[in-house]
Amino acid sequence: MTLAERLAAALVSSEATGLILGDDGDLSGGAALTEAAVLVAVTDRPRPGVILTQRTETLRRHAGQVAFPGGRLDPGEDAVTAALREAEEEIALPREAVEVIGASDRYRTGTGYCVTPIIGVVPADLPLVASEAEVAAVFEVPLDFLLDAANHTARTATFQGRERTYVELVWGERRIWGATAGMIVNLSRRLRWAP
Question: Does domain 3-191 have CATH number 3.90.79.10?
Answer without folding.
Answer: yes
